Predict the 3D structure of the following.
Amino acid sequence: AQKVTQAQTEISVVEKEDVTLDCVYETRDTTYYLFWYKQPPSGELVFLIRRNSFDEQNEISGRYSWNFQKSTSSFNFTITASQVVDSAVYFCALSDPIKAAGNKLTFGGGTRVLVKP
Amino acid sequence: DAGVIQSPRHEVTEMGQEVTLRCKPISGHNSLFWYRQTMMRGLELLIYFNNNVPIDDSGMPEDRFSAKMPNASFSTLKIQPSEPRDSAVYFCASSFQSTGVGEKLFFGSGTQLSVL
């Protein structure tokens, strides 16, 4: 069965510090997708990034960057120069095929990030 | 384009009452998901519809829960009778799925359910 583990339940930083969120996954599939979602205090789930299992290149988008390492089954997320608006719960997720009819997402437990001014 | 629309945003009810949550997926999407979020269990999938057909309902907790998707633009999740332990945030999500492709899910704003 698919499994996603986010060992850090909560991280507190001061504004402008960098913060790295860990994500470790388990799957027997050879082709799969990994995702990060953000849940701000308002409650909605906002898509951040999707990576497939064949693309191990790191990705940077503004202050966000992602490090995918297949050898260690990890897909870590770094926020550089954090801001108060980054305060949210961040979820890592793994695609999980369903009976040849698409896929669902299996989520990790989430990491709450608190950025203090 | 409008996103996934859920109603109501908040629902407070008494134990034993029937609760109906509603969802309108993004137009053109062929897959719809109901997730439940609690502190104890995190985000868990309740049921998944593909082309209006329930494909995986293994996450539905018990017979008190039922979900329908009568057409491509509407789905309901019903709890009857409701219990305090059903209190949670219920999310609806939609996507366009084709076999073997890891499509992202678009989530609604959720329904915060409180059963007293």
The radius of gyration of chain A is 14 Å.
